[in-house]
Design a protein that fits this description.
Helix content: 10-25%
Distance between the termini: 33 Å
Number of domains: 2
CATH architecture of the largest domain: Alpha-Beta Complex
Protein name: Vanillate O-demethylase monooxygenase subunit
GO molecular function, one term: monooxygenase activity
Keywords: 2Fe-2S, Iron, Iron-sulfur, Metal-binding, Methyltransferase, Monooxygenase, Oxidoreductase, Transferase
CATH class of the largest domain: Alpha Beta
Structural class: alpha+beta
Strand order of the largest sheet: 11-17-16-15-14-13-12
CATH topology of the largest domain: Naphthalene 1,2-dioxygenase Alpha Subunit, Chain A, domain 1
Shape: globular
Number of helices: 5
Domain Rieske: 9-111
InterPro entries: Cholesterol_7-desaturase, Rieske_2Fe-2S, Rieske_2Fe-2S_sf, VanA_C_cat
Strand content: 25-35%
Number of strands: 17
Order of helices and strands: EEEEEEEEEEEHHEEHEEEEHH
């Protein structure tokens, strides 16, 4: 049984990845051909001709239609309906491909892989800082991981690993025994902690310019199924900022958009939003260098875990207090998948049943 939530918006690509060329992307185990139409809009179609199953991405464009490179069947780039079968005038109803709902915002291309009738564009992830001129927005890379998306997502609601996986970039030993707080009653699962009056971590030594001790924070927000926001920053200890005064410090949001490719592969497209050095053209690149190093550390850990999970185990895995957020996340994903496996026909109950709840 698949472990993918289908009725959700996923990031298919950064806008800069999509042009007039027919490009194949694999999302939730399905191949999709994506291209930019002549009017600037984006089309996403099932990347398989229904005739002999050649990928349409190996064909060519005829205006905004896509022509199969095998026998020339041509499909409307918006609806997926067949518009031409060379050698015959009738167009079989079965000669069609799936057309996916797509939305482009903030130079991000979102795709809906589930029931098109449930594609609520108002549910696409957003945050005020992406449109606020007081914040600098910068897209990073598309990090490919040989790991299941559930493990990748768990890592992004887990402040406890930072001290050990990222000792020279995002963490240090000062945070090893600082308790992690977890809140699971909202739309997002949140895990956070503050480290007061401590040496700044490598990231803020290089970027924040701190030469004394700082108060620093990590807030991890995990939105089901596959979006994570990490709010982290530092402020001089003598400023004694409160938890609701984080904008007074050097504050960074690292956004992670996880796209499951297959059961064992995930793409993590990451970007960052900052409240400092907005006019410094080199700041984003310097930050990218530091974040690439940190995310490479995560990649090494997650891919090693993936390999070990595939091997037989002599004992049941253990869970610790720090696993509260990941456990709730897995439960929510399982519930979402279970709901999609059944059609709800009880919205208008039969009079034969009277409910007293």
């Amino acid at each position: 049984m698949t472990s993918f939530v289908r009725n959700a918006w996923y990031v298919a690509a950064w806008s800069r990845e999509i042009d007039a060329e027919l490009r194949r992307f694999t999302i939730l185990g399905e191949h999709v051909v994506i291209f930019r139409r002549r009017d600037g809009g984006i089309s996403a179609l099932e990347d398989r001709c229904p005739h002999r199953h050649l990928p349409l991405s190996m064909g060519k464009r005829i205006g905004d239609d896509v022509q199969c490179g095998y026998h020339g069947l041509t499909f409307d780039g918006i609806t997926g309906q067949c518009t031409r079968v060379p050698g015959q005038t009738n167009l079989p109803a079965a000669a069609c491909v799936t057309a996916y709902e797509v939305e482009e915002r903030h130079d991000i291309v979102w795709i809906w892989m589930g029931d098109p009738g449930r594609a609520d564009r108002g549910a696409i992830f957003d945050m005020p800082e992406l449109s606020d001129p007081n914040w600098a927005v910068h897209q990073g890379d598309a990090l490919h991981l040989d790991a299941n998306y559930l493990n990748v997502a768990e890592n992004l609601v887990d402040p406890a690993h930072v001290s050990f996986v990222h000792p020279t970039t995002l963490g240090n030993s000062a945070s090893e025994n600082v308790p992690v707080h977890v809140r699971t009653d909202g739309e997002a699962i949140v895990a956070w902690r503050w480290i007061r009056d401590a040496e700044p971590v490598g990231f803020f030594k290089a970027f924040g310019g701190f030469d004394g001790n700082v108060d620093r924070w990590h807030y991890y927000y995990l939105h089901t199924p596959c979006t994570a926001v990490i709010d982290f920053g530092s402020a001089p200890t003598e400023d004694a900022i409160g938890e609701d005064e984080r904008d007074r410090g050097v504050r960074i949001f690292a956004l992670h958009f996880m796209t499951p490719i297959t059961e064992g592969q995930t793409v993590d497209r990451w970007m960052h939003v900052r409240n400092t050095a907005q006019d410094d053209p080199e700041a984003a690149e310097r930050m990218d260098v530091l974040l690439r190093k940190a995310f490479a550390e995560d990649k090494a850990i997650l891919e090693a875990v993936e390999k070990e999970e595939a091997r037989p185990s002599k004992r049941r895995p253990i869970r610790l207090a720090i696993d509260k957020g990941p456990l709730v996340y897995r439960k929510r994903i399982a519930q979402m998948i279970e709901m999609e496996r059944h059609e709800d026909l009880a919205a208008d109950p039969s009079p034969a049943f009277v409910y007293h709840d």
